[in-house]
Prior knowledge:
Elements: E1 6-13, E2 18-21, E3 27-36, E4 51-59, H1 60-69, E5 75-88, E6 94-107
Parallel strand pairs: 4-6
Antiparallel strand pairs: 1-3, 1-5, 2-3, 3-4, 5-6
Amino acid sequence: MKNLSYIILDGNLTQDPDQKKTGTGKSVTGFTVAVNHNTNPQGEEKGADDVSFFEVEAWEKLGENCFEYLKKGSKVTVMGNLKQNRWKTNEGESRSKVKVIATTVRFDSQRRREAKAA
Length: 118
């Protein structure tokens, strides 16, 4: 059986998406989604600071659409896989970071990115 690391996030972008090209010419768009946990199942307020932040990568056409239509504050639902990157610092210390590799991004906001001035 194949291992599974699937996640669904419902939240808002903390800043405008950032788009880059890899050395092989593939486009990747990165953004951070804030997920607010400040209500309990009964809808009562918990703490105002109970928010989690998740880094998301969207590749190729999906990422291009995210870059085109999303902006800071946009509400999204992201579905994807978790990926852990590991590396060593110059001092030899081990570090790691978990990212969400998006397979689907639902644009839940009605706002559209304003056209950039040429």
